[in-house]
Write a structure and sequence with these properties.
The complex is a heterodimer of chains A (179) and B (212).
Chain A: H1 3-17, H2 21-42, H3 49-63, H4 74-92, H5 101-109, H6 116-128, H7 132-143, H8 148-155, H9 159-174
Chain B: H1 3-11, H2 20-43, H3 49-52, H4 56-79, H5 87-110, H6 113-121, H7 125-147, H8 155-174, H9 183-208
The chains are: A mainly alpha (179), B mainly alpha (212).
């Protein structure tokens, strides 16, 4: 990576750490492009996991952003996070179903299917693997049809926080759990 | 969720971040206080505590264990970053131990043969390491918990660093209870207690620090 890009990203990182939303948005957007390339080169072609890994890495960078020290090279820091996520992904090593989890939950939630009772039980079992807060969020948004703002208010969080929490909940459902 | 939406959500309501040092000092202070309370109400302060602080050996002991704590803290802070290289800190801890051990050996060599065993074993060798390990356990647990929100990637080394730090703090606090004053005693039994915590941290690290 060229020194100019490195300096630019580093400056954005420091402003992001100080709480500047615009800088943080720009940094994550730039990083998402780089990370997509990074993961795509290291996985089977066309793998649906690439975008998952990009998102997981962005979330890790977001949550752990205080660990970046301005004396360190920024790209080394960011790629170390990406590498950890990649190794963790391989270590989990389970074969994933390549069905988007959104579709599965929607399908299970669709009460017009003939085996309504049985699929409901499947869904309950699936949701029971999650922490209560997360499963409640999925129930509220995906089954009861509440908006994110409503479900968030019910759980005592902002709409943005509810969106992230729901995303994480859906993500953990996909992680190696068989239906 | 599309990646752009995720980014937009993450950058909403962004708050300034606290420093890593702050994140790690909080559990250290809380754990240190727990160790202090345990000494005060469970082990008891050494009876000569009011006179002991005037003796050089009291300070040699405190200096040894707090230098170890400092090295452990430095390692832990460095390892909280995904690209941290902690080896200097671990080498520093080893060097500090080496110096004290040398002092202990010299002390034993200069002592009369009959005094050597008492110098080494003191009156409390059978509880010393164990007490330090117990006093350090809360500090280790709290430090590991704090590290879970940070970004260590060398999980075993990070656990060991947290253990070394917990050991150093615990041993320093234990000095308020323990009246032993031989270098050889401290070099062996204090160090063993700190090593036990370091090993416990190294064992727990990969499991306790794995990113969720």
């Amino acid at each position: 990576m060229s020194a100019e890009i490195e300096d630019r990203l580093k400056a954005l990182m420091i402003r992001g750490q100080a709480g500047e939303s615009a800088a943080w948005n720009e940094l994550l957007t730039r990083l998402s492009r780089q990370l997509r390339g990074y993961f795509a080169r290291r996985m089977e072609s066309g793998s649906a996991d690439v975008e998952d890994l990009v998102q997981e890495t962005l979330m890790a960078i977001h949550r752990r952003r205080m660990t970046y020290d301005a004396n360190q090279p920024f790209s080394a820091w960011a790629y170390a996070v990406a590498r950890y996520k990649l190794i963790d992904h391989w270590r989990r090593g389970r074969i994933r179903k390549h069905v988007p989890i959104d579709d599965v939950v929607d399908w299970l939630a669709d009460s017009s299917t003939a085996e309504e009772g049985a699929t409901r039980a499947d869904l309950d079992r699936l949701l029971a693997t999650l922490p209560k807060r997360q499963s409640q969020l999925i129930r509220d948004v995906k089954l009861s049809g509440l908006s994110l703002a409503e479900a968030g208010a019910k759980a005592g969080m902002t709409e943005g926080a509810a969106k992230v929490a729901l995303h994480r909940a859906m993500k953990s459902l996909t992680e190696g759990r068989t239906l | 969720m599309r990646t752009e939406d995720l980014i937009a959500t993450l950058s909403q309501d962004l708050k300034p971040t606290p420093s890593v040092r702050q994140q790690l000092l909080r559990p250290a202070v809380a754990g240190g206080l727990i160790a202090f309370v345990l000494v005060a109400f469970w082990l008891g302060f050494r009876p000569d505590i009011l006179r002991a602080w005037a003796a050089p050996m009291f300070w040699v002991k405190a200096a040894y264990t707090s230098l170890i704590a400092l090295a452990g803290f430095g390692c832990t802070r460095i390892l909280a970053s995904p690209i941290g290289e902690p080896w200097k800190g671990f080498m520093a801890a080893l060097a500090i131990f080496g110096i004290l051990l040398l002092g202990g050996v010299v002390q034993l060599a200069l002592a009369d043969a009959v005094d050597r065993l008492p110098l080494l074993m003191g009156g409390s060798w059978h509880v010393c390491s164990q007490n330090i390990a117990i006093l350090g356990a809360p500090i280790l647990i709290l430090t590991l918990l704090a590290l879970r929100t940070l970004a260590p990637t060398k999980l075993r080394a990070t656990g060991a660093a947290a253990g070394l730090f917990a050991g150093g703090v615990a041993a320093t606090v234990y000095g308020l209870h323990c009246p032993e004053h031989a270098l050889a005693f401290v070099a062996v039994w204090y160090s063993l207690g700190m090593a036990v915590l370091t090993a416990a941290g190294a064992l727990a690290g990969p499991w306790a620090l794995r990113w969720r």
